[in-house]
Amino acid sequence: MSAQGSTAGTAPSTAAGRRRLPESASLIGVLALELVAFSVMSPYFLTWSNLVDILTAVSIVGVLACAGTLLMVAGQFDLSVGSGMGFTALMLAMTAPSIGIGPAVLLAVAVGLLIGAINGFIVTVLRVNALITTLGMLTLLRGLHLVIGHNLEYPIPEFDWAVVRPVLDVPVAVGVFIVVAILFVVLMQRTFYGRRMYAIGANAVAARLVGIRVNPAVFTAFVLSGASMALAGIIAASQLGSVSGSTGTGLEFTVVTAIILGGTSLTGGIGTVSGTLIGLLIVGVLQNGLNLLNLDSSWQQVATGALLILAVAFDRLRRSGNGGAQ
Amino acid sequence: MTAAAIARPRRFAIPSWGALLLVLAAEMTMFGITSPYFFSWDNFVNIVTTVSVAGIIASAVTLLMVGGQLDLSVGSGVAATSFVLVSLSGTNMALAIAAALVVGLLIGLLNGLIVTVLRVNALIATLGTLALLRGLVLVFGHSNYLFITGFDWATYRPFLNVPLSVWVFLAAAVIAHLVMQRTVFGRQTYTLGSNPVAARLVGISSRRTVIGAFLLSGLCMAVAGLVLSSQLASVSGGTGTGLEISVITAVILGGTRLSGGQGTIPGTAIGLFVVAVMGNGLTLLNIDAPWQQVATGVLLILAVATDQWRESRDAA
A61 CB contacts (<8 Å, ≥6 apart)? Predict the structure, then answer.
């Protein structure tokens, strides 16, 4: 935000502030409302271990959502993250017994990078729309996963590093997620690369005309998304202790929901990792709270869907009420 | 008919099917050679039967996507309408069918209102209703199987050994084709999809057109729900899961632009068959079902990449 030179701190009436600050402000309002409501309704909600539980539950989605935010800011999309995460985890679990954990982890990372590179190649060189490309990749990887894994369950013994709780009773998985989030905040707000992605997403033609090499930048973002799939796959393999044919199924839905809730524009150019984190927490807190209230987990799906529509609709109405472009 | 001329530059539309027809012909030749069972009437009927549910929905989704919209809630919508039908079927079948149709239309209306009145992007709106409807089905159905008896009409084969589900699909496709090509509403949808601003300037109500398209999509969800619950004689929490992916794959393969303004029902039908023939052929060759998923993914990317390449060549 600061790198765009906005003076958003004061009031929603300033031109730049109209788009950015109130966005996260209204989301923080929703999150605060959830926190208050659940604290009142459940005595267990506001405890350290429950807050850690919430963070642990969103850590895998969070890792994927950071790279997803970068992509969506650049006007791109990655629906293959769920399948990609499952596939890299499968590679890890299947090869670990024969080649050892270390090489298997390296292989998983290589596979993740390769998936990202293929997505990036198809989008930038073959010029296929990112939604279609990654929809194709989603189907393809899930198919390969079942072909290679035969829908069996592959256990990974002695790989529980992500559930170890070294400090403050917080598992390593959460630590990894926080590190990734900080890296992406810095990347997007403080580096030329990150600022270029905003320019590309806001207006790809203008970005090209001012000398930004659009294709390499977009390609790199897809590779980063591939790397985060591998990281998420490694965390998931460690948390679950095994990989099956359905690992990671439907994860892209949660990731996209969190990013959009966090205020990232589907058409690119607008969005921050901090917004995405708030979006993640809104969903994570809602699910945790409904769990504590002993509500059927299916209600969480209903609530998430309704929340997504309401949050985006509210944002739309607010923007048009302020006389914004849309 | 100037709208038609703008909306459908022939240079793009015709080759985009042409290439796809070649893919289909190549598939059929290959499977015809590799399997003696492939070229038989029964097998063709099987292929069309497997696409009938996706095809009914794809007919409406083609119209929606031509109008620049999208509907991801179709799979959950099919589950919701099937669930209403099966739950009420014990009391009165006619009432249950009517209720399912009404629920389908209500889902379409809800999507349409969210998109037009609340002005939420169609992708987000229907992603939301996807989750919402699936959640509701699981909440009320408790993820159990519910059975329906005496409702096997879709599997009857009254004529040419072709089941009724296929006839329903054909009727839906023909009606959607006529609506898109021969009615003011259909032509307005093309105009709206290719240039919403121009559409507004020539006096087309985008709100009415978009809501109309979503209502059709909702109606098709209900009809597909009726067919599917008749075929399966049951409904569960997983009914229709992932259907939106097959539908959108077929529609995009068939040459409909994601950005709207271009696309036809015959193209979508060919897109459906390219996927279905491949699945059928690979099954006849005893190849694992997951390979079909791999092949579908590759096919989707390749088909769109070819299309993109041809278009950029034409533009140059």
Answer: A251, A254, A255, A258, A280
What's this model's pTM, rounded to 2 decimal places?
A: 0.80
Q: Which residues of A touch B131 (CB under 8 A)?
A: 253, 257, 301-302, 304-305, 308
Answer yes or no: is A39 within a domain: no
The whole-angstrom separation of Cα B148 and Cα B54 is 21
pLDDT digits (tens, 9 = 90+) for A202-229: 888 888 888 888 889 999 999 999 999 9
Q: Tell me, what DSSP letter sits at residue A278?
A: H
Tell me whether residue A27 is in a domain. no
List, in order of start, the domains of chain B with CATH numbers.
14-311 (1.10.3470)
Q: Does residue A319 sit within a domain?
A: no
Does ipTM surpass 0.90 in this model? no
Q: Do B131 and A304 touch (CB under 8 A)?
A: yes
List A residues 223-282 in contact with B (Cβ-Cβ < 8 A). 253, 256-257, 260, 266
Tell me how many degrees the CA angle B56-B279-B63 measures, rounded to the nearest 5. Answer: 25
Q: Would you call A313 and B131 a contact, using CB atoms and an 8 Å cutoff? A: no
B239: Cβ contacts below 8 Å, ≥ 6 apart: B78, B79, B82, B83, B137, B228, B229, B232
Mutate to test the interface with B, among A298, A307, A315 (most CBs of B within 10 A): A298
Q: What total of structural domains would you count in chain A?
A: 1
* CATH code for position A216: 1.10.3470
Residue span of the structural domain in which A265 resides: 44-313
Residue A5 placed within a domain: no
Nearest to B120 by CA among A198, A317, A40: A317
